[in-house]
Amino acid sequence: MTTTSIGQRTLGTTSSLSVSTLGLGCMGMSEFYGTPDEQSGIDTIRRALDLGVTFLDTADMYGPFTNERLVGRALEDRRDEVQLATKFGNERNPDGSWVGINGSPDYVRRACDASLERLGVDHIDLYYQHRVDKTVPIEETVGAMKELVEAGKVRHLGLSEAGADTIRRAHAVHPVTALQTEYSLFTRDLEDEVMPVLRELGIGLVPYSPLGRGMLTGAVTRESLEADDSRATGRFPRFSGDALDANLALVAKVKELAADKGCTPGQLALAWVLAQGDPDLGVVPIPGTKRVAYLEENVGAVAVELTHDDLAALEQAVPRDAVAGERYGDMSTIDA
């Protein structure tokens, strides 16, 4: 049973989906951010539901494949409480090796059926194309996704890391409910072209990594990352060399503002993302964690109210172009 409510927001207008004000990214429970702990992940998901966090995000490639199974196990008796999102398109082999980005219609159908089986559900509430396949016209990919809606396997469609033109073309085939993309105090490039298109077409925004892959929590140092953590391997240039030092200096400013506000740095950073929503743009961040304590801290961000002065102070502390390093070492898979 849900014991606490953090409220709801609506993603999209043409094909709208009501979700909890804050979502939960489940990726790190299975891969990328240190040693996985399945039971801790399940406990975190179930605690999230108790707190009113009912918008859960996974993908077939996380694990690969193991994260969807973990989420499915956590939801065995609570499916009706959840808005469940998963993704296809980053194709991997069972051994974890990468195949490539795949947006072919046949693959869309096969990937959806496989996700449904792993999750143990009869439908997916929000189904995203994880990355845009530049070798397949977006109209063909979304056409296959539309067929999944018509078959009752999927309720709403989404895109991830798609550029403005791709979003327009996709939306013309079938209403897009949400765009998932990286967005935080540290990543704001979508404000120029993408966010105006979302407002125009009535598409919601689901920011992933709203805490800058954890850096904005203030807990990341050069020594804090495990050897198997992808942030320590060079995959994310912002966590390496001089860039890390420069970015931690920005985080120090966020810490000071958070102390003045009486909240944690992570809560302040999440409150900033939540404040970017407006009547024309539903914004629902999905901070990821595999620990209950961090989940509970993140939920506290919903209660942090930012004034105009607070927002201005954050803009001054972390100017839009001040962050050092690209967000990925390889940006070729990002649609522009």
From TrEMBL:
Domain NADP-dependent oxidoreductase: 22-317
Keywords: Oxidoreductase
GO molecular-function term, one example from the UniProt record: oxidoreductase activity
Root EC class: oxidoreductase
Pfam families (alphabetical): Aldo_ket_red
Enzyme Commission code: 1.1.1.-
InterPro entries: AKR, Aldo-Keto_reductase, NAD(P)_OxRdtase_dom_sf, NADP_OxRdtase_dom
Protein name per its UniProtKB record: Aldo/keto reductase
Organism of this sequence: Nocardioides renjunii
